[in-house]
Specification:
Blueprint: H1 5-17, H2 22-30, H3 44-55, H4 57-71, H5 92-103, H6 105-110, E1 112-116, E2 120-125, E3 135-140, E4 167-169, H7 177-192, E5 201-206, H8 217-228, E6 235-241, E7 243-244, E8 251-254, E9 257-260, E10 262-272, H9 285-298, H10 310-321, H11 327-335, H12 340-353, H13 357-360, E11 364-372, E12 382-391, H14 397-414, E13 417-421, E14 424-427, E15 434-440, H15 457-472, E16 482-485, E17 488-490, E18 509-512, E19 530-532, H16 533-552
This protein binds 2-acetamido-2-deoxy-beta-D-glucopyranose (3 copies) and zinc ion (ZN).
The site of one 2-acetamido-2-deoxy-beta-D-glucopyranose has 5 residues, from loops.
Binding site for Zn(2+) 2: 140, 175, 238
Protein name: Peptidase M20 dimerisation domain-containing protein
Domain Peptidase M20 dimerisation: 259-412
Length: 555
């Protein structure tokens, strides 16, 4: 929640007091920008000294080698893998562990390294003050498979880990071995400096983020909850969105995902009597299914913008600080702080700010699969389609089920179909000319994530650390740029990180990888995945500062 009543009152008071500064002052209140945060207490000398280590060519070469070596182990995860112990394909993770043991000897000799479900790694670093809740830092060891037919499109082979002086190449360099190796490198370096944490830190790396997450984070979560208890962590940092310059040159937005959309694949299944095509009824199951799909597409979910939600915080930050936002849109965002009509209008126009934002305020729907019919002289006995949904933060799995059920019920009766929706009988028809069933297609429905609080200290530590890391960075692409922070609702391909298993462990979940738009060569999950070596090193700096800042925090 970003706006609380007392804050709103303060905003209104400020407007009344200084009308000339109205828009800016409102915007800044709507999107508070926290200060860069760097250790100033007992960790300050180490924090400064460690920068020199990270600047050294030796350290950088070793870190690049560590990632390169990790990439050489093709730890692919496939859809529909069996459990660990049955499916032999997990054995590759033992090779990765062996490589980690060789590359990070201090972690393996000084910390408690355990495995969960054989191949998930959980590393515990005990702090001296057990009254402070530990921090959980996570990532995944698996990678999406490389399609063999694309091997020849790679500039360097996908499991080469080749370093060309600028880029480290290969599957997993960005997602997620780069971030995992960065965490391990930060910890190994701190151990090398004899750092003894006050707070405990836990590192957990799953094995199937890219498929179901059930053998990996699902099992890790159970272990962590039984070991550390419900809400047993002060915060979780997992992979996620990074920083972006997409709003204009010379301005960097740090955009951690503080929420994730929900998910549901809805199967719409029509079954009718078969028979010969020479004496057909007016509508076959395919014709009826088509009518249902037309109705679904004609009734998209309405955009909904709530002042308490993540998308509202995102839009306020963009409106306040992004260059190039047209003034009328800025004014509308400001008005939406207090004016309900403006809020509704902003929800409808949010795509003008950034086309991707439209998906943020809606439950999206896409009809992605369809099957039906076998032969032209036989009436199809069944036809079905699957509609993919990403559920908005304001809604829920139940809200979506309700929407579809109400939408399709009139058609079911119009076509004289009995109707079952999500396991419940909605209506029966007599005489019945068939059956309509809607269901969770693959049993993969997921509620939207509980939004991470933005008015809390953990958020300030995360964004303060990111800002300080950017302001200290010596990289040309970063130096001298203005930095703003905006929370984000994860969309599309970042939806459903391993954190979906971790909701019980803390309210403060951050999906953030300290990397910019141009630090990956070609994105993840495709050919020519590569990471800039200096981005990898900067990520290590960020993670080190994150640990040291948290270690100094006293709550
Ligand atoms: C390892 O675990 C033992 C037993 O729980 C504990 O006493 C010790 O402090 C742990 N060491 C580290 C570095 O976490
Ligand atoms: C539904 O049943 C009614 C009553 O039997 C019939 O009049 C109507 O034509 C049927 N509608 C369709 C689409 O089959
Ligand atoms: C959260 O905790 C509840 C109760 O302890 C448990 O039933 C549920 O499975 C947990 N959820 C996850 C994702 O682990
Ligand atoms: Zn990933």
């Amino acid at each position: 929640m970003i706006l609380r009543v007392p804050l709103l009152a303060a905003v209104v008071a400020a407007v009344v007091a200084s009308p000339a500064q109205q828009p800016l002052s409102l915007a800044q209140h709507a999107c508070p920008q926290h200060h860069p945060l760097t250790p100033t207490g007992r960790n300050a000398p180490l924090s400064a000294h460690i920068q020199d280590i990270y600047d050294s060519p030796d350290f950088q070469a070793k870190t690049i080698q560590a990632l390169s070596g990790a990439v050489k182990v093709p730890s692919e995860s496939y859809d529909a893998m069996g459990p660990v112990g049955e499916d032999p394909r997990y054995a590759v993770f033992a090779d990765l562990h062996a490589f980690f043991r060789k590359s990070f000897p201090l972690i393996h000799s000084q910390l408690n390294v355990s495995t969960v479900n054989t191949y998930n790694l959980v590393i515990h670093w005990q702090g001296s003050d057990p009254s402070l809740l530990p921090i959980l830092m996570t990532g995944h060891q698996d990678v999406v498979p490389v399609d063999p037919s694309t091997w020849n499109q790679w500039e360097h082979p996908p499991y080469s880990g080749h370093y060309d002086g600028t880029w480290i190449w290969g599957r997993g360099t960005c997602d997620d071995k780069g971030p995992v190796v960065s965490i391990l490198t930060a910890v190994e370096t701190l151990l090398g400096q004899a750092f003894k944490p006050t707070r405990s830190f836990v590192f957990a790396f799953g094995i199937d983020e890219e498929s179901s997450g059930l053998q990996g984070a699902g099992k890790i979560a159970k272990y962590l909850q039984s070991t550390y208890g419900k809400n047993g962590f002060a915060a979780i940092l997992d992979e996620g969105s990074g920083f972006t310059e997409r709003f204009g040159e010379d301005t960097i937005f740090v955009v951690p995902s503080t929420s994730e959309k929900g998910y549901m694949d809805v199967k719409v299944d029509v079954s009718t009597l078969g028979g010969h095509s020479s004496v057909p009824p007016p509508h076959t199951s395919i014709g009826i299914l088509s009518a249902l799909i037309v109705t679904i597409e004609a009734n998209p979910h309405k955009p909904t913008l709530l002042r308490t939600g993540t998308p509202f915080a995102t839009i306020q930050c963009t409106a306040a600080h992004a260059p190039g936002i047209p003034q009328p849109l800025r004014d509308l965002a400001h008005a939406a702080l207090t004016d309900d009509d403006a809020l509704e209008k902003l929800g409808k126009q949010i795509g003008l700010v950034d086309p991707a934002y439209k998906a943020m305020v809606e439950t999206t729907q896409a009809v992605d699969l369809i099957v039906g019919g076998v032969k032209t002289n036989a009436l199809p006995e069944g036809a079905s389609a699957v509609v993919n949904h990403r559920i908005g933060e304001h809604s829920s799995v139940h809200g979506l089920q309700d929407h579809i059920t109400k939408l399709l019920a009139p058609l079911a009766s119009q076509f004289n179909l009995t109707f079952d929706a999500f396991g419940t009988s909605v209506s029966s028809s007599s005489p019945s000319s068939g059956h309509l069933t809607v269901s969770d297609a693959f049993g993969t429905a997921l509620e939207p994530a509980p939004p991470t609080p933005l008015d809390a200290e953990p958020w300030k530590i995360l964004v303060g650390t990111a800002k300080a890391s950017l302001s200290e960075s010596k990289r040309e692409s970063v130096v001298g740029k203005k930095v703003f922070v905006s929370p984000m609702l994860a969309l599309g391909n970042t939806v459903r990180t391993d954190t979906k298993s971790y909701w019980n462990l803390t309210k403060h979940i951050f999906r953030y990888t300290h990397m910019g738009d141009s630090d990956g060569y070609n994105g993840a999950h495709t050919v020519n995945e590569a990471i800039r070596a200096d981005a990898l090193i900067d990520n290590v700096r960020f993670l080190t500062k994150f640990i040291l800042n948290w270690d100094e925090a006293e709550f």
